[in-house]
Amino acid sequence: MNVDFALIHKERKKANEVASMVLVGEVRDRVAILVDDMADTCGTICHAAQKLSEAGASKVYAILTHGIFSGPACERISKAALEALVVTNTIPQEKNMRDCHKIQCIDVSMILAEAIRRTHNGESVSYLFSNVPM
User: In this structure, what CATH number is given to the domain that contains residue 36?
Assistant: First the structure.
């Protein structure tokens, strides 16, 4: 993708409890994009956004596959150093989007249905991604 890369290393004491979080890389005056598979209470993603902001990122976005958003998640996202948090609709997001203006949703229903159809028929699933510009 020809972009610079930084990462946030986190260690957990136990489930839903981050012991430490360290930024590795330079983000000053850059747009940072956090990528994660899922978020539940959003403590970790919001903490990571704060780390990036404190390190000088000009803007911080997050993109997640699954947004569970339980408990204080929407309130945390609203207060977080995030421009937007983009999530797929593998879990319904209408209420969360009403409760938090930073949440945006990508509809993956058609591509997911086509992937299931192709898998069932023994067809190539990689074809679905072959027209993505690089």
Answer: 3.40.50.2020
